[in-house]
TrEMBL record:
Matching Pfam families: Sacchrp_dh_NADP
InterPro entries assigned to the protein according to its UniProt record, in alphabetical order: NAD(P)-bd_dom_sf, Sacchrp_dh_NADP-bd
Domain Saccharopine dehydrogenase NADP binding: 4-120
Source domain of life: Bacteria
Name under which the protein is recorded: Saccharopine dehydrogenase NADP binding domain-containing protein
Organism listed in the record: Capillimicrobium parvum
Residue ranges of the TM segments: none
Amino acid sequence: MKAVILGGAGEVGSEVTRDLARDGAFDELVVADLDEGRARTLVDEFDGAGIRAVGLDLHDREAALALLEGADVLMNCTSFVLFDTVIDLAIEARVDYADLISEPTDAQARAAREAGITAISGLGATPGLSNVLVRHAAEELEEIAEVHISWVSFRTIAPTPGLLDTILWETSENCETRGFFQNGRFERAAFLDGSRLVTFADPVGPQRVYYLPHPRSRRCRETSRRCATARSAEAGGRRSWTTCGCSAAMACWPRTAWR
């Protein structure tokens, strides 16, 4: 089996490459990165055959498609801003696909099915877990008025191109996917809207959270039909009453606080 790892020499991509190389499930690993030198340095960590480095600019579509010939899996570890480009490549090449973070559209999901490939998006810290918990809670409750999903992240201050892309996107005035569902409609939110104080477990404690763009809120109503058509106790009828506020607080904690 052959796997192509796009962005395979990046901060996260290099760890994905190492995991796949140690796992041994693939006969051939291709580490494709814009920085070919860095990719070669990473590949040099492994003495065995079956892993090679390739310099690739994703704007060269023909070169990217040629690289995917004979591949079984395309692992996308590039910046999320390249998501549309990469999943379109996987669909055209008919190669199974996975990525770290993305917001696939219904049209892209249909195109993947029509191409006969499996496409798994968002293999991040908690891939889909929040929405599974929402569905479980919804099935146990008699009525649902609101759903709020909040999380806090711990990370050291280590600037990377991917992190910069993410921050610029999340805080942009033109971000169309930052918001929440209310009364059956997606409502856009401005940066720093939705401020709430949430108490997390120690040692994090109370943190102020804000609406951020994330598939959790947009996909919540698809995860559970009860969230999509929650019953309103006041009206006594069925209506889409979901206010799924997907919010996040980013916290930097010294490593000593976690020892």
